[in-house]
Amino acid sequence: MTENKFSSIKPRMTKTESLVEASRCLFCHDAPCIRACPTSIDVPMFIRQIMTHNVKGAAKTIFTQNILGKSCAHVCPTEVLCEGACVYNHLNERPINIGRLQACATDWAIENNICFFKKGLPTNKKIAVVGGGPAGLACAHRLTVLGHDVVVYEANEKAGGLNTYGVAPYKYTNKDSLQEVNYISEIGFEIKTNTPVNNAMIHELEKKYDAIFLGTGLGKSKKLNVSGENLKGVCGASEFIYELRKKEQKISVGEKVIVLGGGNTAIDAAVESSKLGADVTVIYRRSEKEQNAYFFEVELAKKNNVKFIYLASPLEILGKETTEGLKCIKNKLEKKNGSKKSEIIPIKDSEFVIPCNMVILATGQEKMINFYSSIPDLELNNGKILVNNFFQTKNPKYFAGGDCINGGKEVVNAVADGRDAACGIHEYLMKGKFNG
Amino acid sequence: MADLKTNFAGIECPNPFWLASAPPTNTGYQVMNAFCAGWGGAVWKTLGKPVVNVSSRYSAVSYKNSRMIGLNNIELITDRPLEINLKEMKEVKERFPKHALIASMMFETKEEWQDCVKRCEDIGIDGFELNFGCPHGMCERGMGSAVGQNPDVCERITSWVTEVAKKPVIVKLTPNVTDITKPALAAQRGGAKAVSLINTINSVTGINIDTMEPNPSVGGLSTHGGYCGPAVKPIALNMLSEVRNHPDFHLPVSGIGGIESWQDAVEFFLMGASTVQVCTAVMHYGFRIIGDLKEGLNDYLDSHKMKKVSDLTGIAAKKLRKWEELDLNYKIIAHISPDTCIGCQLCYAACEDGAHQSITLVPGVRVPKIKEDTCVGCNLCSLVCPVENCITMVPAGAGKPKLVWADHPKNPNQLKSYKSLT
Ligand SMILES: Cc1cc2nc3c(=O)[nH]c(=O)nc-3n(C[C@H](O)[C@H](O)[C@H](O)COP(=O)(O)OP(=O)(O)OC[C@H]3O[C@@H](n4cnc5c(N)ncnc54)[C@H](O)[C@@H]3O)c2cc1C
Ligand SMILES: Cc1cc2nc3c(=O)[nH]c(=O)nc-3n(C[C@H](O)[C@H](O)[C@H](O)COP(=O)(O)O)c2cc1C
Ligand code: SF4
Asked: pTM for the complete prediction?
């Protein structure tokens, strides 16, 4: 049953479907979809190639720009990226289903193990990549194409980062992610899993390697700092999803689950809990239109019977040993002159209690400040690693990309960063370009 | 309500939509179904001496999402015994006395032709269509397009039939000629009361690049076929205009070739046809398309305050002239409506790479700009634009008097004014 509930929300197109859809593409000049893709995939070209039955060529077009084109095809919020830019939107016509067409080509290439790249002529430069997520993998792949020797250090048992341990399983499965990791690394770079790089180890790496790329993503879920947070049944969203992905959805949830937060992670945790059988309520302190979650994600949650309470903040998690309820207070918003966001004002005597056996905190993730502080000269901004246009940090030997520099965006942004950071590292190592 | 009743060369029918001689008119069962559905006439699948057909028989051209924009066949004439065909034709005529039932024929000797004419008239058919058009198989035996391509033979065989026939004789012409007016005039000389055009066009629709065999494959070999369907309509319209506009040709014409919608039919009428015949569209969608064909034609006539189909005949043919008669001072240029433009910039690519470099892009703006001083008014941008009425062609430099090539200063041999001729 659960297997079924978590089946893909963007199922594979049949060949006919893909041909019909591909032939709708207008082949725009200077196409807006290309511009909207952070990795600038030549979308009209690969769609045309699908239309002419040249699926292999389509896959090559995609992978040339984005080696994680498969996971992006499945997990990208295309509605606000390429498909959102499709000119058909201006015609009040359905945009081209770019994501699913991209999946046709990339799924095919990976299932048939058709590789388009090989290791470049050796440069004898060694680079360590810390983090085997989308940013790290994209960086390692491009560096290998450029001829460098690369080793990826990954703390988890398996590589793939949040593709393996974070994104919703009804978008991307463990099998998909691991198959993709194998496909990418086959070009010839090593991935050392179960190998967290700690403060001591980073200095060893620094001696051994010519450059280091940090693709470490974000840290643990943030705490709320309310009483009852240590009760059984309270957990962080990323930790909850990590367990879910690791155990391939074979976990149990409370009967009544409350998810706190208004972002996409909150929605994912809510939908996943609902699919596991819980009665789920999302509580967000601001109003509906201020939530960060995409409208189509909220729609998905509503379809999965998730309820929403807006304008309420948690005060206390109730219970003796296990979670029994959540005490909240209602909020109102007041616009302050000059500030963009309105201020949250708790409404006096408006406290209320919702019974529940599980509270999932999806109110953001911490940054790995402790780890970063062990790297000399690394400069941070709000916990995010600061880089220049070449993705080089203030310490010239270190480069960084992905969630650890942008504070948490999408897989495709991490891929673009990783790929371009590889070019930055190449320039730095081969031409001695320095942080200016 | 306009009156769709038509008299074609003396043949009465409830409407001008006929089924062309082809698989939809193979049997009495089909023709009765067609008449029940509303078709006004049917030209029976060509009668002749016994033949055997191959398998497979058809292949097609599909374009993007559109299946079968062109159809190719290597079928011969009817492969059913003449007696059975005549028996079923009789049954049809008895049940549908007001509908036009035409016998299509293809024979070799004078005796064979004349014998069939008599047997058909005995069962009460309304007219004959002589198949001088089949471009494959039968022509190898000296029939079909082999006749249509030779005006003398065309005239002779026509006269064999008209000698004995009491009912009107239509000659169906092949498009596989350089000048369609030659066989049309030959048919007229032979005593035909009308012509129909076009039959199918010589074609090879494609090759299976896996097996390297041309389509359709008959055990690994193929033969060229006859092309029809929406793709051939422009060729048919042109040939129709050529016979219609020939000063010596006076017979009514039944238009055939790629007709699928009532608009197509209206175009054939405007170009000079008096009835139309349909094959591929029925093979694709079935008889029931007739409802829309009749309704659409009727509404069109009503909206133009016309009472009958013949009011349309030939209006557009008169406007199809020699290039030399066109006004070189007439000028239009492209105009892009910024409100409806969706920013695909297909017009830019088309004009820049394929036309006259008269569209520019402004950095940061998706809507392209027309360079009015260099635009030649070719239409290309408006043809590629996916948005209806977004690129329109607007008059420019109005007010100049008409100027034809004969009078143009750039004409190296300005002999005489064409204007004075018209
Ligand atoms: C719940 C959730 C759902 C999401 N859903 C989507 C979605 O549907 N679509 C989408 O596009 N994006 C989604 N995202 C965002 C997306 O997953 C991230 O933007 C993307 O994975 C960032 O890639 P990254 O490589 O920077 O970091 P990560 O994917 O986080 O990878 C970082 C890797 O580094 C490893 N690591 C960290 N520190 C160390 C260390 N010291 N030593 C060794 N290894 C280390 C980690 O174990 C991890 O494998 C989601 C995020 C979350 C949290
Ligand atoms: C606008 C236009 C102009 C053409 N001019 C010429 C020409 O000057 N000389 C020529 O041999 N063919 C000319 N052709 C015919 C093409 O070379 C070609 O034979 C024909 O278009 C069929 O090919 P297609 O179906 O790929 O368009 C022209 C075609 C087009 C569309
Ligand atoms: S009409 Fe022809 S020349 Fe003028 S802008 Fe359009 S494509 Fe260019």
From this structure: 0.87
Q: What pLDDT shows up at residue B416?
A: 55
Give A430's Cβ-side CA count (13 Å radius). 14
Q: In sequence order, which ranges of A38-133 are alpha helices (DSSP H)?
A: 43-51, 55-65, 69-75, 82-85, 98-111
Write the DSSP assignment of A311-343 as a string of letters: SEEEEEEE-SSB--EEEEEEEEEEPPTT-SSPE
pLDDT at position B422 is 46
Q: Which H or E run includes A153?
A: strand A149-153
B159 Cα: distance to centroid of ligand 2 (angstroms): 41
Domains delineated in chain B = 6-319 (3.20.20.70), 326-413 (3.30.70.20)
So where are chain A's domains?
A: 2-111, 126-219+367-431, 234-361
Instruction: Find the CB nearest A28 among B345, B361, B387.
Output: B345
What CATH code would you report for A126-219+367-431?
3.50.50.60
Ligand 1-lining residues (CB < 6 angstroms) = A 75-76, 130-136, 153-156, 161-162, 166-167, 171, 196-197, 215-217, 238, 241, 264-265, 268, 371, 402-404, 408-412, 414
Whether the complex's predicted ipTM is more than 0.95 is answered with no
Reported as a pLDDT band with limits 50, 70 and 90, residue B141 is confident
- Token pair, residue A113, equals 């193990």
* Residues of chain A scoring pLDDT < 50: 1-2, 436
> What pLDDT score does B305 carry?
97
Q: Nearest CB to A91: which of B65, B342, B345?
A: B342
Q: Among 3.10.50.40, 1.20.120.450, 3.50.50.60, 3.30.470.20, what is the CATH number of A234-361?
A: 3.50.50.60
**A126-219+367-431 and A234-361, same CATH topology:** yes
pLDDT the model gives residue A435:
55
Structural contact between residues A236 and A220, judged by C-beta atoms closer than 8 angstroms: yes
Report the chain B residue with the minimal C-alpha distance to residue A29.
Answer: B345
Catalytic positions of B are 134
